[in-house]
Amino acid sequence: xxxxxxxxxxxxxxxxxxxxxxxxxxxxxxxxxxxxxxxxxxxxxxxxxxxxxxxxxxxxxxxxxxxxxxxxxxxxxxxxxxxxxxxxxxxxxxxxxxxxxxxxxxxxxxxxxxxxxxxxxxxxxxxxxxxxxxxxxxxxxxxxxxxxxxxxxxxxxxxxxxxxxxxxxxxxxxxxxxxxxxxxxxxxxxxxxxxxxxxxxxxxxxxxxxxxxxxxxxxxxxxxxxxxxxxxxxxxxxxxxxxxx
Length: 245
Fold this sequence. Notes:
Blueprint: H1 2-14, H2 20-34, E1 48-51, E2 55-58, H3 78-86, H4 91-102, H5 112-115, H6 132-142, H7 149-153, H8 156-163, H9 168-180, E3 199-203, E4 208-211, H10 220-232
Antiparallel strand pairs: 1-2, 3-4
């Protein structure tokens, strides 16, 4: 800790014009691109899927480019970048800490546009909040290596928080990590995490009490029930009964 503080003071003293949050953001974005997969689709995007039998695999409509390996996940140029990144001792633990220490964009903010990376404009001050999307993006593509899944799954709670971020840059990248590591649909809905249906003050002037409801008129309990029903309602048990039944 002391050595880190001395190093930071040295950087600030000798490189006063550098914005280290900006350097950290674009460095993480570069790692993201080095570890990325590229497919023979119109946009070059790859559509990765996960199931228990096949594990992580590509959708048939997005064949990999320039592959020479035996499986989808080691069959693309990005696999070379991923191996180099994974070979850097301490790098993935650092990325995990950096993403999770930052956490998601607050659900409410008086200066939301200045905090959200997706709303940033040229000349906006680059703060630590701007680095999360890029760091999460780097982890997103490292997750294309199944050998890294267990280490990445350890950050599930953090990924779920980022998945529920109001910043789509953070949310979409965290969602891809959850999909690629087989954790899709495993996050607790944000309102249900500490859900209690109880009377709250719904009119500050009169002090009137009533049930908490969201914008669709759902109570906390009903919100959670509808969410899980929508997410898993069509799953069928061994005896043929659907979950929503």
